[in-house]
Amino acid sequence: ESRKTEDPSDRPLMEALPQFCQTVIDPTSGLPASEISVISEDGVRYDFSIEIRDSNIPNSGYGAFLTFLGAKYIKHQSLRRETKELIAGDLHLQQTMEPLQAKTYDGWGLAVTLKGTNLNENETCKALQQKLRERGLGINLPKAELDFHQSLVCTSRGYIDRYKNSDYFECNGTTFSSRAKHCGLIDLGRYGPFSRADRKRKTLFDIKNFIFQNEPASWDYGVDEKIRLHPQIIDITDDGTGEPHQVAKENIPMYINEIGHNPSLE
């Protein structure tokens, strides 16, 4: 009897904490290094670092090395303070129907859409009260306020980015697995495209790939969306050299890709 294994891509994407995430470029090597913090569905913060250095695979160029730094949880007094501020503060509803705008690195506009998951429901009010009691807060909120605040307090969303490092304590002995309950996948950033030039017709890309002896094919990927009714290829290589362009080199995902046919590698 065959046993069905879980597809890792089916795991949910964990929410990043932007105040603890950053990417810096080493001024000497020009390589990126990142710090990433994500929060699980049960409120545990997981910290990671990503370093780019020589791959452990011989003759394979650079590799990305992910290191788990530890887990943290919000201090009770910080959570209690934040909850009281939420209850005492005014409710300001944002204009969520406003059109979304985004731009690429070279200034071109992008169309942006949102898809909601795990949205709030009124039936979860009792669950929020129970979770508050479990955390020692013992606060009874009116149902109307529960409806509004449940995502901010119960699921650690909304005002979670207001917390500082001093608001957390270490969870010693806690490990991380994307397959564990309440955890999931970690977004390491954009592989591409970064500019309008990174989107190419397949015929144009094939010509470029031929000129540069298949080096661009080491870094491209296809997408279902067509470009001017033609098959589209996402190409993060420079049109003058055939090697990854500068913006791609400053982002982590490029170093997770297969090395391919770089002629300088034996």
Architecture overview:
By secondary structure, this protein is α+β, with helices and mostly antiparallel strands. 18% of the residues lie in helices and 23% in strands. It has helices spanning 76-88, 125-134, 143-153, 202-211, 246-249; strands at residues 15-16, 22-25, 32-39, 44-54, 62-74, 102-103, 109-110, 168-170, 199-201, 221-227, 230-234. Strands 1, 2, 3, 4, 5 and 8 form a 6-stranded antiparallel β-sheet that branches. A 3-stranded antiparallel β-sheet has the order 9-11-10. Strands 6-7 form a two-stranded antiparallel ribbon. A hairpin with a 7-residue loop joins strand 4 (44-54) and strand 5 (62-74). The chain starts with 14 loop residues before the first strand and ends in a 17-residue tail after the last helix. Mean pLDDT is 77; it is low at 120-125 and 141-158.
Cα radius of gyration in angstroms? 23 Å
Q: Can you give the mean pLDDT?
A: 77
The termini sit apart by 44 Å
Low-confidence spans:
120-125, 141-158
Helices and strands, in order, run as EEEEEHEEHHEEHEEH
Short recap of the structure:
By secondary structure, this protein is an alpha+beta fold.
